[in-house]
Amino acid sequence: MTLTKSLSLRAQDAPESGIVEIINYGRDRDRLLPLWAGEGDLPTPQFIRDAAKAALDNGETFYTHQRGIPPLRAAIADYYARHFGAKLSPEHVYVTGSGMHAIKIMVEAMTEPGDEAIYFTPAWPNIAAALGVSGAQKVGVPLEFSDGRWNLDPARVEAAITDKTRMIFVNTPANPTGWTASLEDLSALLDIARRHGIWILADEIYALYHFAGGRAPSFLDIRQDGDRIVFINSFSKNWSMTGWRVGWLVAPPELGDTIENLVQYTTSGVAQFMQQGALAAIRDGDHVIAENYERARVGRDIFCDRLLATNRVETLKPDGALYAFLKVDGLTDSRKAALDIVDKTGVGLAPGSAFGPGGEPFLRACFLRNAGQLEDAAERLADYIGRL
Fold it and tell me: Residue 251 — very low, low, confident or very high, per pLDDT cuts 50/70/90?
């Protein structure tokens, strides 16, 4: 028996990321335009870095609050008041070591091994992997792709529920599709969850990247006390802090002791100097959100308009999030195509196959980047598509 075979089946079955495979294949190429990952090209703003550095200089390097430092929890509650009109107390807020960490601990809180969890496909691959590694059974409900847009049929969700279903994972605006739930969609999903007594794990990281104007509809608009909803968010996208790995969740205060214990036994909390940087971001950084939103809006138009002009791309401009999920005539094997595109164009795209059922014919590009780079990438891709 090999050493790997002596590990648990859950560990052995943890899938390789199809996105990382392409990144590793092409990361060192000359003139590469990397649109494969879900991040922009700007570093974290200086005032955020300065706050973290000042905290380091002040010796804030000791163990700290497992639930997050009180000023940061209060500032996150205020963020929801400003942007969502939601009345939350700091006791609803828990700081985590990234949005991924928040998802993982809540999956383990909401499911036992063998329980079922519903999510919508194509989907960010980490949710399916987090469910699998935790021992839950993944139940993918497909979004419908028609006339270049994605839609959800709530009846399909209800039909997927069994006596083993414990949670529904809802990512809206969605990675990779850009699907953005309407208030009617959210109401239907919440009604289903209430009827069946199951949890909703709401990933609303892209809520402020909503191109119809204003932020996207949220479960916060319709929730009532006692609803089984936990919200996931992160500092990564809004404030250009992907590498910091700081996130948070919003949950009923009665879950506080359980969440604190799960934090304790996974990361034991987020470094205090990092939390001070996060505090500066969320307290003083609404202008950064606005600037990143505008970069994404302009980037979406530049990139999508050029590729739609080829008349070979079916996907329309997404309603939200940071991604163009492209269905190109003549391409069916997205992994093979992504590798070929790196070789022939120097543009890095994520293969749709990495996003599970329904994603195979698509390619994902992140448009939170410099306009000039996106113009260059779109021209290279348009030329490639024209040669197919």
Answer: very high
Checking phi first, is residue 87 left (phi over 0); if not, alpha (psi -120 to 50) or beta?
beta
Tell me what pLDDT residue 14 has. Answer: 84
Tell me if 130 sits within 8 A of 152, measured CB to CB. Answer: no
CA distance 277 to 246: 10
Distance CA(355)–CA(345), nearest Å, equals 23
Nearest to 260 by CA among 100, 61, 78, 64: 64
Beta strands in 103-211 (DSSP E): 116-121, 137-142, 144-146, 149-151, 165-171, 199-203
Q: Is the pTM of this model over 0.90?
A: yes
Amino acid code (one letter) for 184: E
User: What angle (nearest 5°) sits at the alpha carbon of residue 206, between those of residues 205 and 209?
Assistant: 155
Order of strands across the sheet with 323-327? 323-327, 362-366, 350-351
How far is 358 from 140, CA to CA, in rounded Å?
10
Give the pLDDT band of residue 315 (cuts 50, 70, 90). confident
**Domains defined along the chain, listed by start:** 3-44+287-387 (3.90.1150.10), 46-285 (3.40.640.10)
